[in-house]
Design brief:
Jelly Rolls, mainly beta, DNA-binding, disordered N terminus, 4-stranded antiparallel sheet
DNA sequence: CAGTATCA
DNA sequence: TCAC
């Protein structure tokens, strides 16, 4: 069975152009919404191969967000620390391949933010249920000379966007279904997080939110 | 915000 | 410590 490809059209929703977030960071409102149903179906298919799981942090805590990955390497956390693994520790098998359409979408989004030649080799898939959150952190486990591209699907969330210091002031930015965020350059290591997901019901995802983040790990 | 918990 |  051939995998469905989708065309590379990061359509702008009516009237909204790129929205600057910070130096080297921007938000593309609704640009992924036209492919949302397909991508959500792919996420669910992928999760049958590499299931969503809640990882443990080095300190022993359990993350409220459920995760799985696709691509050449997947982000993993356990008591020993954070790292990228070429195989899913849960199955011992390689992660599902990154769909070509996903890759193209991430590359196009990065280019719109000024990052030409983005070559993502990993996509972290976060599943938020009501109440799930992501504490303030930096993405430091992959190449910082490549941007991070983030797609949001399903329930809205409040994106916490800070600076290079944990103590820098935070902005609270709503991220809605189909929104794309790109950050790199001087803000690549900015602290960020997600406020506890508020209850709701989305026609495509029900009571949850999916977030895909594309990175270059090697 | 300090103390604590703790996977495979 | 990407938790609580």
């Amino acid at each position: 069975m051939t995998q469905r490809q989708f065309p590379l059209d990061l359509r702008q929703s009516a009237g909204s152009g790129p929205e600057p977030l910070d130096d080297g960071a921007l938000i593309l409102r609704g640009h992924a919404s036209s492919h949302a149903a397909d991508m959500i179906a792919q996420i669910r298919r992928m999760a049958r191969q590499s299931p969503f799981r809640r990882m443990t942090t080095p300190g022993g805590g359990s993350m409220s967000v459920a995760m799985t990955c696709c691509g050449l390497r997947g982000w993993c956390s356990d008591a020993h620390g954070y790292r990228y693994e070429e195989r899913d520790p849960l199955t011992g098998q390689p992660w599902p391949a990154m769909p070509e359409g996903w890759r193209q979408m991430a590359v196009a989004a990065a280019a719109m933010a000024g990052y030409e030649g983005f070559a993502p080799d990993s996509c972290l898939i976060n599943g938020y249920r009501v109440g799930a959150r992501m504490g303030l952190h930096q993405d430091r486990d992959e190449r910082a000379d490549a941007p991070v591209v983030s797609l949001s699907f399903g329930l809205p969330a409040i994106f916490l966007w800070g600076g290079l210091l944990r103590t820098d002031p935070l902005r609270r930015i709503p991220l809605l279904h189909g929104d794309v965020v790109v950050w790199g350059g001087t803000t690549r290591l900015a602290f960020h997080g997600i406020a506890p997901l508020r209850k709701g019901d989305h026609p495509l995802t029900g009571p949850c939110r999916y977030n895909l983040t594309f990175r270059r790990t090697a």
